TrEMBL record:
It comes from the Eukaryota. Keywords: Membrane, Sugar transport, Transmembrane, Transmembrane helix, Transport. The chain crosses the membrane at residues 16-40, 60-81, 88-107, 113-136, 148-169, 181-202, 280-300, 312-330, 342-364, 370-391, 412-432, 438-460. GO terms for molecular function: carbohydrate:proton symporter activity. Residues 19-463 form the Major facilitator superfamily (MFS) profile domain. This is Sugar transporter. The lineage of its organism: Eukaryota, Fungi, Dikarya, Ascomycota, Pezizomycotina. The keyword Transmembrane applies. It comes from Mytilinidion resinicola.
Amino acid sequence: MSKHKISAWGYGHLRLYLLCGICFLNSTMSGFDSSLMGSINTLPNYTNYYGLPSNGTASTGIVFAIFSVGQMCAALFVWVADWQGRKRFIFIGTIGVIVGTCITATAKNLPTFIGGRFLLSFFATCACSASPLYLVEVAPAQYRGTLAGLYNTFYFIGSILATSSVYGAHKHLSHNGNLDWRLPLWLQMACPGLVSIAILFFPESPRWLVAKDRHEEARAFLVKYHANGDPDHPIVKLEMQEMIESLRDDGVTEWKNFFDLRVLFKTPARRYRTMLNLTFAWFGQFSGNNVISYYLPYLIANVGIHDTDTKLLMNIIYALVGWIFSTAGTRFHDIIGRRKMLLGSCAGMIIALAITAGTAAGYVKTGSDASSSASIAFIYIFGAVFAWAWTSMQPIYPAEVMSNDMRAKGMGTYKLMGGAAGFLNTFVAPIALSNIGYWFYVFFVFWDLFEFAFMYFFFVETKGLTLEEMDDIFESKNPRKASTAVKKMKYTSFIGADGTKREEVIEVA
């Protein structure tokens, strides 16, 4: 690439950005749901309609946690993205979300509402599993962290839409039956509806096409979107060779071999990849972030904020802060690197949670307004620090560390593990908050310390490498050291018959 520059603003790249931008809308589904449920749970019309308590209990937790149950169940079907293709699986998921939305928005009783949320979660997970697969596989290596990383920042767009719609509906429709909470539920289908209309017109992932022996279509994709239409650009030949070599022995998953999980564990390198995938899934959901995103109104109530409008506004502000910092952080993953950003963010989260716990304890013991304000401020700082490094990488890093033939099954295990962590968080959190209060923060301080140590010793750096080039990293004796070692290249020069000079890489060490 140093010898053959490709314009980031060429026609092909701009078309690719548009495709990715439409895919980003799938990410709004998770953000919309987490903030929607946290917001409508503060509305008296909603809690009275379903007979829910105003404080956190197990019944409140199951309404939230059923989303994680649906996520875990859907993880068993992520292999369909290998069988039918990335874009078809996204289409199935978005149509299912529309059906689930219709059920929840019209539910007459709590069991029907919970059932609709299960369906909504199941199909949202289908779409949200295939979307990172697609983005990671279509993005050029030099922009993968930025382009694919932007996907999860749209979590906050969904969150902003949800909290704003609930706030507006509560302000203007709270005296009009149950429209103040049913209208925001209907809006949950807006973004997936747009994706369902467009996705079938997308080109398929070139790696999936190679796995299906459709090499000419894959090459046409690389020419158009990676080389800005130049069929002779060396990046086209390089990427085709790498993909064919990577998929030569082991193709993608078929329905016949879905339950054969040996592909994830049969060699030390594959076990290392799977370990990173699973631990990142757990860390991404169990660092204190899920508790805050779902239960922010409860957290601020614990430090003296009880007005419904104020709590809704603070939910909106939290989402805005998260969106700003997560979007800013996406570019830095390709500059600073994944490891350094994740470690720095984890250190910041530990400090923020420790101060939040201390100031919350001060408020409980003294009733100090200064302690209340400081506790709320550091909840927001925690959200900003987490969003800056973690939000954009949550679905991307687990896909990057998987080889081509492992990726769909790997994302299934990622969703399964993430769903388990999310279920534990959302089901236990309201009970814990009611019983131990600020000590819940203290638990996450020590847990995040463990995360920091684990990431330091085991997490690899993926910045700047193609998905196939990472095979060499994981085959080394110590993948973490190999990924952070300085790469050196040796060149040889050739003088052509016309007198022009060119250079080729003869060794990389």
